[in-house]
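for the recovery benchmark. tokens below, seq after
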């Protein structure tokens, strides 16, 4: 019998894939696709040291690529003022320990997400039957143990402001995780949503590779609280954003995006719920 080789995040990161580079979507906003997940950069190009913010920290093994993208956009030796996390799943914090220590930078997350970032609590197991496709079957191989950035870890302020990002507010959008947040700027109606909803069918490895933009709910195999997930999508759709940046898939804007998001909110139970999931439960909404 052939030996099973664990599909680690490092192994995924090493698989050849199209590299989109850094895509600017506003004068002070850009994102970079790293294998199957996006990291977001806030700040004016060439703003220099401590003049920008990193949102999420990608997969393990991507530290050099994040540093290179930051150097190209903000200048040689430019460190961020802060790292802000939408949530703590492995594909959003893979480089967090190395980057936060090297850059000597505070890490901000929701109070309910701290337990997954201070070494104390691991996430619940994935639902391997949720949504079909190969990715749910591979999900048990992904790490769930908490990382520990306790020395740099800070709680997002109660007033809703986002450190280092004037004009932005954080919104508690639980469901995918208890302390998941999205970031909203009303001035240009820009929205950074992490995995509250995404623009690719994350359950399908083919869709992840192809990256054709289409509106989906949060990744089904790692979303335990679907009542809260639905309420979060409804809240975000009600903002009527002009631009959305998701954790998986391409950024989207314009009337077609708005219509797709409204449809997702309206038809959430039909199009987003994993009816075939073995561990599916309609849990009570997570308290803010």
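predicted aa per position
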């Amino acid at each position: 019998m052939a030996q099973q080789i664990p599909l680690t995040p490092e192994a995924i990161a090493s698989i050849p894939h199209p590299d989109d580079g850094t895509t600017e979507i506003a004068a002070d906003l850009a994102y970079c696709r790293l294998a199957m997940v996006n990291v977001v950069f806030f700040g004016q190009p060439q703003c220099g040291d401590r003049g920008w913010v990193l949102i999420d920290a990608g997969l393990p093994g991507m530290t050099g690529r994040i540093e290179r993208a930051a150097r190209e956009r903000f200048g040689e030796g430019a460190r961020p003022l802060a790292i802000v996390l939408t949530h703590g799943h492995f594909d959003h914090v893979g480089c967090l320990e190395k980057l936060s220590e090297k850059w000597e930078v505070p890490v901000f997350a929701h109070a309910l997400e701290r337990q997954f970032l201070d070494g104390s609590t691991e996430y619940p197991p994935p639902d391997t039957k949720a949504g079909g496709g190969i990715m749910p079957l591979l999900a048990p191989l992904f790490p769930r143990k908490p990382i520990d950035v306790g020395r740099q870890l800070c709680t997002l302020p109660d007033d809703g402001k986002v450190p280092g990002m004037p004009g932005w507010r954080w919104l508690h959008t639980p469901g995918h995780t208890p302390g998941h947040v999205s970031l909203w700027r009303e001035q240009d109606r820009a929205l950074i949503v992490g995995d509250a909803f995404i623009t690719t069918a994350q359950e399908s490895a083919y869709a992840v590779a192809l990256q054709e933009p289409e509106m989906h709910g949060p990744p089904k195999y790692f979303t335990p609280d679907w009542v809260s997930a639905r309420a979060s999508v409804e809240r975000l759709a009600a903002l009527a954003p002009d631009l959305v940046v998701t954790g998986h898939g391409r950024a989207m804007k314009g009337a077609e995006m708005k219509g797709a998001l409204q449809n997702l909110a309206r038809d959430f139970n039909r199009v987003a719920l994993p009816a075939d999931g073995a561990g599916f439960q309609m849990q009570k909404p997570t308290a803010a």
